[in-house]
Amino acid sequence: MIRPHGGRLVSRYADEKERAAILEMVRHLPALDLNRRETSDAGLIANGAMSPLEGFMTRGQYEGVLDRRRLPLGLPWTIPITLSLKNNAVAGKKPPFRAALRTEDGDVIGVIDVEDIFTVDHTREAERILLTTDAGHPGVQYLQSIPNTYVGGEITVIDKVIDDKRFTNYLLEPKETRVPSRRGDGRRSSRSRRGTPSTGLTSTSRSARSRPSTGFSSTRSRARQRRTTSPPTSG
Question: What pTM, to 2 d.p., does this model score?
Fold first, then answer.
């Protein structure tokens, strides 16, 4: 089984005791608004899909990605995972402090322990990460749509974050896809717990195996046949 990036599968979910405490405290905390992309990122951080990240990037992590494509301890990482500051809820506050994380729908999904608040140059970010500043590029458009002040720090999420409720029954988190099972020959393997392979895929595979090859080997065979049946050239 492939090890998680960094060697440890991160989980930033609150346990039952933490969850109760967070639900009580968020009523008294300033709230940071997340757009849809940031909400999705929070969910991926919490379930370990972005291991070894444990929160939104601080300046040191962000600059390392832009300049070296690395996290501070040297692990490769090529995309900044950031939270932009969209309101004045934390105006005048200096880290460290705690704030609630609120989605576009107004739901509080957890908290962030703010370690850093810093200003960035979106043109530089686009040049380093997207390799373009073309306003027609979706990534450039996204950067132009958000404030250039970022908030960094570890997060704690109270529930699984589901960006699109239509796919609730199909969502598998990293720990669920890493469930080992016994194969018929006794060896261990990972399984996705999604049933048998697609019938269409299986049929296509069988058909491909039973169909005569029409590629390079057939072309070579026809060439040999022509050489053996062609009359000799007169001298």
Answer: 0.73
